[in-house]
UniProtKB/TrEMBL annotation:
TM stretches of this protein: 12-33, 80-106, 150-174
Family in the record: Belongs to the PER33/POM33 family.
Presence of keyword rRNA-binding: no
A GO BP annotation: endoplasmic reticulum tubular network organization
Descriptive protein name: TMM33 protein
Membrane topology qualifier: Multi-pass membrane protein
Gene: Tmem33
Cellular component terms per the entry's GO annotation: endoplasmic reticulum; membrane
Pfam family, one: TMEM33_Pom33
Length: 232
């Protein structure tokens, strides 16, 4: 009754569980490397479906207008719909599957707890314990996801020069990264950028750091700072 009363949430729960399943079979290629590549695409397509359903839930009344598009781009679900489309037809990159896997795992765990609560407060205590541990580490997981989002930017450039990526991919991914940086719901991308800058500045200001390395890092920090969008 609980599942039928929340059909859209249940559909997203199932698609997230399928995303976790496909992502796990890509990261751990138990069925062979050829099958792993197909699971990579399935995971991203399932994530795109979940993101589209979530976006429909947040913005149920679609309009073909600039205002609606601007509103949609503020939603994290729209960001990860774009993310899935960026990588679904690209060369499989393990780094790119971790945000999809971990976000799906976190959201699926949250809804699984609701399903267990609807059934009984004492249902499957072992599973409940695992879900509680996952929830307790949510902040660390979100930071790890943000770290993946940031370091995928140079990875897309490297893929371009190695012949495994398209010319447009780094530019489209840069747009995705600016959306994540400006996210209202998830500040971890901004937080990680700040923390990385503090760490790098601390290291290069040490006397043992060569002058040319210091200058290179400072110019890189200045360049990246200019690219960062303004956050309200």
């Amino acid at each position: 009754q609980f599942l039928m009363a929340n059909k859209l949430d249940t559909a997203m729960w199932i698609s997230r569980l399928f995303t976790v399943y496909c992502s796990a079979l890509f990261v751990l290629p138990l069925l062979g490397l050829h099958e792993a590549a197909s699971f990579y695409q399935r995971a991203l397509l399932a994530n795109a479906l979940t993101s589209a359903l979530r976006l429909h839930q947040r913005l149920p009344h679609f309009q073909l207008s600039r205002a609606f598009l601007a509103q949609a781009l503020l939603e994290d679900s729209c960001h990860y719909l774009l993310y899935s489309l960026i990588f679904v037809n690209s060369y499989p990159v393990t780094m790119s599957i971790f945000p999809v896997l971990l976000f799906s795992l976190l959201h699926a765990a949250t809804y699984t707890k609701k399903v267990l609560d609807a059934r009984s407060s004492n249902t499957l205590p072992f599973l409940r314990n695992l879900l509680e541990k996952l929830s307790a580490n949510q902040q660390n997981i979100l930071k790890f996801i943000a770290c993946n989002e940031i370091f995928l930017m140079p990875a897309t450039v490297f893929m371009l020069f190695s012949g495994q990526g398209s010319l447009l991919q780094p530019f489209i991914y840069y747009r995705f990264l600016t959306l994540r940086y400006s996210s209202r719901r998830n500040p971890y991308c901004r937080t990680l950028f700040t923390e990385l800058r503090i760490v790098v500045e601390h290291l290069i200001m040490k006397p043992s750091c060569p002058v040319f390395v210091r200058r290179l890092c400072l110019s890189s920090i200045s360049f990246i700072s200019r690219l960062a969008p303004t956050v309200a």
